[in-house]
Amino acid sequence: MENKRLLYQAATNENLFGSSPQVLAAMQQALNSVHGYPTPDAADLRHALAGKLGVQANEIVIGSGSAELISLLVRRFCGHDRESEVLTFTPSYPLYCHEAQALRISCTEIPLTSSYQVDVQALRRQLRPTTRLCFICNPNNPTGTYLTSTALEEVLDCLPAHVTTVVDEAYIEYATATDCADAVAMLARYPNLVVLRTFSKAYGLASVRIGYMVAQRHLIEQVLEVKQPYNVNQLAQVAALAALEDEHFLEMTVEATQTGKAKLEKALLKMGVQFWPSQGNFLLLDAGGYSADDIHNYLLANNILVRRADQHTLRLTIGPDEHQLYLLHMLQELLHPS
Ligand code: PMP
């Protein structure tokens, strides 16, 4: 297979099946009015999301990507008090700790169990009177593992009132497991729960930077204290509104990802490469007898970008057939040269 010019950007979990044509048309139209400031606090989008999620529009904050919201949460809940602490899990999304460390706030990463589940006993042991925030990613990046409703409730039940728990659902649209927790449905019962979602993944809008948080009003008010009024540009707001309307694109994405994942899993099994079952648009591979660095560098030299999760594992974004076949071909050449 001679495909060396193909670039497989499999390192950042974008939607490699593209973006909705309806969204692109709406953005094109919005280019006519870029002289004006964006709609403050993205009111139209919040109303559309509220209708979809069954919450009030004033229970939503829109951010310039969910990354901005992670930053605002850490700033608002920990920034005033250098003694405050952030808890999260490892392996998981590193930005939670990066944001804490940027403010010189202590961040503890609690190891997940050997099957990448949240260890509630370990979490209990790490709770302090100074713990302010706990970040949980579901489905988890980079493992693809997930919490069931029961498992998430067990976690939420053990967290005291002085801890705000942030459930980051960046990949929730991809989750097909029927018992995967839906944290938005739990908001009414847990006053200190925040749910984060994004348009960067399944909606295919990573470059326009737009995400949202949903929580009870008292938490929303606190985050609004540190949010800039025009934090989300108008093109992003227009794009997100159009993306919510194009349900067909979302369905197509989820289906193509499922199919692509199944094909990749089948081929990896045949090749003897181990991986973890994933609810996201990515797979975590075991580097086997190789170091993750070696495989990463070999693939990079062949125009395939994957993410090193640690020394033994690599994370790979699901993509179109052509890309995956090329990756499989290159892996085969490395692992089983003929
Ligand atoms: N949460 C998780 C778990 C992620 O993987 C990412 C991006 N990789 C983000 C949040 C941030 O996404 P964005 O800022 O693009 O919304």
Structure description:
The chain has 338 residues and is α/β, with parallel strands linked by helices. The chain has two domains: 98 residues, Aspartate Aminotransferase, domain 1, CATH 3.90.1150; 225 residues, 3-Layer(aba) Sandwich (Aspartate Aminotransferase, domain 2). 38% of the residues lie in helices and 16% in strands. The protein has eleven helices and twelve strands. Strands 2-8-7-6-5-3-4 form a seven-stranded mixed β-sheet, with helices on both faces. Strands 9-12-11 form a three-stranded antiparallel β-sheet, with helices on one face. Strands 1-10 form a two-stranded parallel sheet. The longest helix is centred in the last third of the chain and has 25 residues. The model has no long low-confidence stretch (mean pLDDT 97). 4'-deoxy-4'-aminopyridoxal-5'-phosphate binds next to helix 3.
